[in-house]
Amino acid sequence: MADATQAATDTVASKNDSAAVKNDTVVFGTEADAAGSSRNVPTTTDTSVPSPVPGPVPEAAPAPASATEDDALAESLQLESKPIGKAQHFSESQKESIRKLRDQLPEIVKEAEDELGKAIEPSLWGVPLVSPDGTDAVLRDLRVDVILYKFIKARNNDVVQAREMLKKTLVWRVQFDVANILEEKFPEDVFSKVGYVYGHDREGRPVTYNFYGNLDNASVFGNLDRFLRWRVQLHERGMRMLDFVDVADMVQVHDYDGVGLLSYDKTARTASKATVQL
Question: Which of 173, 154, 160, 188 is nearest to 232 (CA)?
């Protein structure tokens, strides 16, 4: 859930990362609209007989499959038997683009590891991109297709650019330690006034509420590193609510009640710029 300049509290985890996430945006421009959408959030997911004629000595039966192989086979069959979800329908041209990008996943992961100088566990929002045991189970996981298409769409169906974007995303997530960010704690008295994820819309999409007015800029943006990590955590919380089967998008509600020229000071501008440049 990028390249455009947004306000300091806009939900942007990374211009490499979040550009791939399609969010529907609802903007409340009047005080009455904002009041109805902000703090009071509405509720909105063959057995044959042996021949008597002597024949050649039969070959030895193959060794039984190991537990790992059995598990992989079971997982593959299970994935194949699952119905296609609402978010997993693609046109033939889209499928071809996804296939091209998916075929490059091992190379993309290797390049990211070379840049980082260490091995990584390639996954996005809880979905593994490459099978750690070397099986092809992931190739049958349509959730991966949904995620990959986000990168393709974000780069105007250019698979080459989507490939580069995906690699940069994997590198950035390791550098920013996104894998552990959901465990971090932030002061509720500061950030509960800035944004939160609450409920779903009628299509089952999680809704993120963002507030821009009546903020204590020094408290919210004064510690820039803390603000950026909180903002990425908020984005990750919303993304983890997607199943990439029937629901693959989020809704963003932006409340500008109380925003004025004086409220967008140097501290807020600095935070806005840093957020976009992540």
Answer: 173
Q: What would the two tokens of residue 260 be?
A: 């004025």
Distance CA 45, CA 204 (A): 4
Closest residue by Cα to residue 126 from 243, 16, 278: 243
φ and ψ at 158, to 5 degrees? -90, 105
- pLDDT tens sequence across 202-216: 999 999 999 988 899
Amino acid symbol at 4: A
What would the pLDDT profile of 111-168 be if each residue is shown by its tens digit? 999 999 999 989 999 999 987 765 555 567 899 999 999 999 999 999 999 999 999 9
What are the tokens at 62?
């193959």
* SS3 per-residue string spanning 198-250: EEECCCCCEEEEEECCCCCHHHHHCCHHHHHHHHHHHHHHHHHCCCCCCCCCE
Q: Say which DSSP state 82 is in.
A: S
Identify each DSSP E strand in the chain by its residue range: 23-28, 123-124, 127-128, 195-200, 206-211, 250-255
Residue whose C-alpha is closest to residue 213's, from 41, 3, 8: 8
Nearest to 168 by CA among 11, 1, 16: 16
pTM score over 0.85: no
Which range, 57-61, 114-118, 261-265, has the best average confidence (pLDDT)? Answer: 114-118
The first and second tokens of residue 221, run together, are: 């943006």
